């Protein structure tokens, strides 16, 4: 069997990184690229810059990566499904739950592989965290807290922090805990003069009563990317900027000081920072999607999971408008 023929729609900031990785992994040939606005980063190389997804499909491709703005995901995705082409679509999957569900249904009906580019799931720290939680290293999970804060990215124009950034934390939280979101409460503010929110604080409940808290904004001059999971045996801290994972265990020593001995909560125990391999998350994402297209067992972010993330984002937006908890689904 020859290499998979791949296309790319969208040659902006993310498109250039997708192109680099598609050209680097084994078993894939990038044969067609498209962007109606041109090629500002020189992604095309020796390929013609095509005008749209129709031209990419006409080039004869097995799968396509979609890195166009969110507003176009639905239209482009349905054309790929109609043509029988597998697709890896950048997150969020679509601009609202209805369009996300329609994409998931269209690909399922054709038996096509649909993946969503929630790249943080492939961060080495998050991959390690997921494995350790599944192994029972934390025992019963109590709480997940994420903080994703930093300066405003000028490339984002069509969505706010909930769809662009909170979607990362929603996906990784559901994935590492293997639990669905049930209830969402969120507060947003608008400080940068745009029509979309630039800060959100959300308190949510996952299946089984696990609580989550998410602090996300474009208004902090220093970047922070943390996922903190607290449970029966201690706390894991995953830093996705450095791809480090640290475990803070509950103490087991007996206190001899009478005042402390009366306290029946946890105490500080050992701290361990794990040495883990750190491959590029986007490379891992592309390798996993390639394998899924080839029919191999592979852990990708499915369209169904991507649609569930959009549902939670929509619930956050609704909660911020109504000042009430919103039940997901």
UniProtKB/TrEMBL annotation:
InterPro entries: Gfo/Idh/MocA-like_OxRdtase_N, Gfo/Idh/MocA_Oxidoreductases, GFO_IDH_MocA-like_dom, NAD(P)-bd_dom_sf. It holds the Pfam family GFO_IDH_MocA. Residues 127-236 form the GFO/IDH/MocA-like oxidoreductase domain. It comes from the Bacteria. Residues 5-118 form the Gfo/Idh/MocA-like oxidoreductase N-terminal domain. This is Gfo/Idh/MocA family protein. It comes from Luteococcus sanguinis.
